[in-house]
């Protein structure tokens, strides 16, 4: 299929999507890959934080010996920082994902 | 007495609102129309309300008391599960429009046979997850009224069956949202008041030092309803008054580390004695107890990682979670609701840990019978004897009942829906049935679906709630998680690949769990893997799914499905047909 001719023929990306053409699928694949890359990046950040913590607590006895307000530092690390980090990570991700959707919408609606 | 009233009020309120809700929302489209007016906060509270189960309300504190602060990884994983859901599943699945996991499996891979497999897996996971809810109910009713364990299991099982059969309370977002705040209140208020009353954490030596949990300055009496095998961590004298009148009190002495089978009756421990622990559990010194990871078996790093994987990836595969997302109007709304869920769950999970720690100091007699799962219910009276303690105890009991009523209703709706919609037509070989017949089938299925979990719960009295829940998560993570992740993001997944991967994951996870049970919880790395097989079973399930899919002769062409999953809203694309939700008679009350 000659893509240039199609484009000159006044077809928009929206038409391509709606008619499930090869081009439409290509547009969509690009969006899907960007969304996936974003999710994997967030997963990496999560994995780095949560993945390191058990090993760090296991391998660094100092974390267990140092007390903060009478409670071992290792316990503070387990209980306090991660839930807020999940929330921040989730909020940042949702904003970026919405922005990716929006830029795709703009691409598709553009004449 | 106050506690009984509180529990009765919660139960009656739940069933009553459920019956009322059935009249308000009769069909799936009613639910969808109503959902448009719902804000992300309401939806988030409703999702969290349905999610917080007996495991969260009773199990984490119980396991923490028993096994140490290792248990707190579980609450971290329970929260993080929604992050995985947010990153990979929430928006695409909302757009796709499947109400159940079975619908998704069938529509995405165009395979009715995969639907059958998914339905079987839903029944397995749902059943596994119902057992700990019923166990919690049995324990709680026993603490509140003194009724035997099996009475509580049976009573709550029947109430939930009845409730779901009537139409269930699930459809009503407001009810679930209310249940969430009730649970937060019921766990937060007593914890805060007790901490203030005690002036902080008492008895640091037993919590973080070298002491074993021990009796206070007055002798402690423990009632044993059956002979109990225990281990004494330190040498101490003790007295047993056997039940029955013929026996006279026995005074005896135990060496450090000695194992003794105590007869049924009253065990009296002298002041400051280290409390013996039930056979099968280990007495921990404060420093061991407070160590979040380290050691062997269920305290080892392997176990912690495996548990984190199971909870992180398993949440999305629980049968009752998915349908809640349809109260979001579109994909972005599903994302923003899930972000709020992360915040709400984080708030709730601050509190269970406080009960486990205080319980170690204030109700150490629970170690004797191993009934640490009741610590949330027993702590208020022990920490604050008198009226205040009774009121606070009533509040935690009401919260616990809200927890297992909401979660087990949600689970049973999924199970009964699967039985009446998938299993039954397959058996009777008739495909078309009127709305009336389908509704009657659903009601019967709501009773049938509860039977097996009730029977298993009778035998599972000695297994910790948190452990039972860990298995359900391992199963979900090894079957539905790869189905969702690959089904949503990978175009080359085939029905055969998905089926092989799910079967492999399910077999590995269940055989690990059963082997652990058969071998009586062996130690070391093997013991950790048997207790929580996810770290092995999840990667293998993914691998099998990918390899079998890649070997397919014909490359699948899921363009239409991918469009339905990933195309943003507002493009005015023609309906693909995949988006049309299943409209089901019986699940209309959903």
Question: Would you kindly provide a written description of the structure presented here, covering whatever features stand out?
Answer:
The complex is a heterodimer of chains A (111) and B (590). Chain A is mainly α. Chain A has 6 helices and 2 strands; from the N terminus they run H-H-H-H-E-E-H-H. In chain A, strands 1-2 form a two-stranded antiparallel ribbon. In chain A, a hairpin with a 2-residue loop joins strand 1 (67-68) and strand 2 (71-72). In chain B, the strands form 2 sheets. Chain B has a 4-stranded antiparallel β-sheet with strand order 1-6-3-4. With 590 residues, chain B is mainly α. Chain B has 24 helices and 7 strands. Residues 28-33 and 577-590 of chain B have low confidence and may be disordered. In chain B, a hairpin with a 7-residue loop joins strand 3 and strand 4. Chains A and B meet through helix 2, helix 3, strand 2, helix 5 and helix 6 of A and helix 5, helix 13, helix 14 and helix 24 of B.
Summarize the structure.
The complex is a heterodimer of chains A (111) and B (590). Chain A is built from six helices and two strands.
